[in-house]
Backbone:
C-alpha cells in the first residue's frame, strides 16, 4: 500500500492506494483547499499565516498516514514551493509536521507524473494523447504516444495569478476576460507548433479545475454540454453576463471555487485556441495517481531514474563500459566501508555512471562540468535534492575536497565520495581484478592496506595515493596506506 501527498498551490491532497490486479484502488483520500499560493507576498515569500495553515493540514495528514501500514510514502510540492523565496527555510517545519521528506519537484517532473497518472487510468497503451493540467500556480502540457512522453512543458500561468491579475475582487468583464485569454495564449505560443506537429488522437484535462469546469458545463447543459471550445466560450459568456463571481449560483462548483474556475477557464480557452484543440475530456486522474504508480514501479525494480541515467549517458556520449567498470569498483569499495544508509548506495552507483559526463564539454575540469550537468539536467524521476546530492558526489571525484565539505560531514556520503575517488583511480589504472585484495576503513581517518608487492605492480596507483593523502589531510581526515 502506498501514499501520495500533493502539496499544490490551491489544495493539499492525499491519496492512499493499494495495487490490486494491475489497478491501484484508492482506499483513502483527503483534501484541504488551503490556497497556499495566496500566501505569497510581493517578494514571493510565504507569509507566516500561510505556513501555519499548511502545517495544520500536514499534521492532519500525518495522523491519517499513521492509520495505515504503508510500504512507501512520497510527498511532492509543486509551483508555489518552487517559487517561494523562503521555501528552504519553511521546508524543515513542513517535513516535521507530516513526518516524511518533502520533494519540491520541477515543472517537467510534475508533468511526467501527471501523465503517468492519466496513462494508468486510461489503461490503453496506444494512441497519441495531449494532456493539459491547469494548477494553482502553473500549467503542464504533455504530448505523448502510449506510455512514451514526447513533449512535457510547465508554463508559469495558473488559476491563482490569473484570477488575482485579471479578475480582481471577483469582478468579471468582457474586456478582462479577453485580456486574460490573450495573456494565457502568449504563454503557449512559442511551443504551439511543436505540439501541433506531434498531433493527438485524444485530449484530456486532468486537474481539479478541469473537472469543475466539466461538471458545471454538463450539469447545466451549457453549450453542447461537453468540454468543447464552444461550450467553454458559452460558459465565459455566462460569467461575463453575471459580472461577479458571487452572482454565480449554478450547480457543479462550490461558491468559493468560482474564482478559481474563472481563472482556469481563461487559461483553458487560451491554450485550446493557441494549440487548435476543438474539444477535450476531463479525467479524474493526474499527479497523485502518477506518484502512486511511480512508487509501485520502484518497488518492482522498474525505476524511471535508472532509465534517465541511461538516456543522459547516451545524450552526452558517455563510454558505458568505463562507467559500468567504475560503478562496479565503487560498489565493491563502498561495501568494504560498511555504510548504514541503503539509499546512498543508489546515489553512488548513479553518480559513478555519470562521473565522466562532463568530458562532453571539456576534458579540462571535466568533473566540474559533470557536476553542473548532473545537478541541472532534466533527469525524469529525480528530485532537485537528489540531483544536488549526486552532483556533489561527482564533483568530489577528484581534486581538493573543500568544495564538497557539506557532504563530508555525513559519514555515508563521505564514504561515497571516497569510494568514487578510489574507483576512478583504480579504473584508470586497470586494477579491477585486484580490488578485492585491498582492505579499506574509514572512521575518523582513512586506512588502506594492500598486499605485499601490490603497489609495485601498480606504480601509478602509488603516485595517486600520495595525492589522495594530501587532499584528505587538507580537510582534516588522516589518510594512510600500509602493506
Residues:
Amino acid at each position: 500500500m502506498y501514499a501520495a501527498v500533493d502539496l499544490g498551490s490551491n489544495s493539499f491532497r492525499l491519496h492512499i492506494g493499494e495495487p490490486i490486479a494491475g489497478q491501484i484502488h484508492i482506499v483513502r483520500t483527503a483534501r484541504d483547499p488551503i490556497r497556499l499560493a495566496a500566501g505569497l507576498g510581493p517578494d514571493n515569500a510565504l507569509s507566516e499565516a500561510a505556513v501555519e495553515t499548511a502545517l495544520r493540514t500536514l499534521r492532519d495528514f500525518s495522523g491519517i498516514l499513521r492509520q495505515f501500514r504503508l510500504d512507501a510514502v512520497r510527498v511532492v510540492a509543486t509551483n508555489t514551493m518552487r517559487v517561494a523565496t523562503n521555501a528552504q527555510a519553511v521546508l524543515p517545519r513542513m517535513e516535521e509536521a507530516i513526518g516524511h521528506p518533502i520533494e519540491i519537484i520541477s515543472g517537467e517532473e510534475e508533468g511526467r507524473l501527471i501523465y503517468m497518472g492519466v496513462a494508468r487510468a486510461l489503461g490503453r497503451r496506444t494512441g497519441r494523447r495531449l494532456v493539459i493540467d491547469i494548477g494553482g500556480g502553473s500549467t503542464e502540457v504533455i504530448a505523448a504516444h502510449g506510455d512514451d512522453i514526447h513533449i512535457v512543458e510547465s508554463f508559469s500561468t495558473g488559476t491563482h495569478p490569473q484570477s488575482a491579475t485579471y479578475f480582481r475582487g471577483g469582478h468579471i468583464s468582457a474586456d478582462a476576460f479577453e485580456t486574460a485569454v490573450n495573456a494565457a495564449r502568449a504563454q503557449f505560443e512559442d511551443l504551439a507548433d511543436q505540439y501541433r506537429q506531434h498531433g493527438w488522437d485524444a485530449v484530456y484535462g486532468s486537474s481539479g479545475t478541469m473537472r469543475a469546469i466539466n461538471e458545471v458545463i454538463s450539469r447545466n447543459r451549457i453549450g453542447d454540454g461537453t468540454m468543447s471550445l464552444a461550450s467553454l466560450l458559452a460558459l465565459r459568456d455566462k460569467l461575463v453576463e453575471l459580472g461577479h463571481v458571487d452572482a454565480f449560483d449554478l450547480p457543479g462548483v462550490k461558491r468559493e471555487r468560482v474564482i478559481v474556475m474563472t481563472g482556469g477557464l481563461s487559461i483553458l480557452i487560451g491554450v485550446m485556441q493557441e494549440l487548435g484543440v476543438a474539444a477535450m475530456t476531463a479525467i479524474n486522474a493526474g499527479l497523485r495517481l502518477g506518484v502512486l504508480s511511480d512508487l509501485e514501479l520502484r518497488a518492482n525494480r522498474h525505476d524511471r531514474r535508472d532509465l534517465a541515467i541511461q538516456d543522459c549517458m547516451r545524450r552526452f556520449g558517455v563510454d558505458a563500459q568505463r562507467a559500468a567498470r567504475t560503478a562496479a569498483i565503487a560498489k565493491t569499495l563502498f561495501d568494504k566501508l560498511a555504510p548504514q544508509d541503503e539509499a546512498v548506495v543508489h546515489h553512488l552507483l548513479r553518480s559513478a555512471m555519470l562521473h565522466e559526463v562532463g568530458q562532453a564539454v571539456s576534458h579540462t575540469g571535466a568533473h566540474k562540468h559533470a557536476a553542473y550537468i548532473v545537478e541541472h539536467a532534466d533527469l525524469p524521476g529525480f528530485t532537485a535534492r537528489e540531483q544536488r546530492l549526486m552532483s556533489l558526489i561527482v564533483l568530489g571525484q577528484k581534486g581538493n575536497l573543500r568544495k564538497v565539505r557539506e557532504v563530508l560531514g555525513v559519514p555515508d556520503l563521505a564514504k561515497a565520495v571516497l569510494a568514487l575517488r578510489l574507483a576512478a583511480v583504480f579504473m584508470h589504472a586497470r586494477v579491477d581484478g585486484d580490488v578485492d585484495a585491498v582492505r579499506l576503513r574509514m572512521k575518523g581517518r582513512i586506512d588502506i592496506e594492500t598486499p605485499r608487492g601490490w603497489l609495485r605492480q601498480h606504480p601509478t596507483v602509488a603516485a595517486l595515493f600520495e595525492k589522495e593523502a594530501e587532499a584528505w589531510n587538507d580537510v582534516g581526515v588522516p589518510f594512510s596506506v600500509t602493506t
The longest helix spans residues 174-198. The longest strand covers residues 23-32. Residues 431 and 458 are 8 Å apart (CA to CA). Residues 2-105 form a domain with the Nucleotidyltransferase; domain 5 fold (CATH 3.30.420.40).
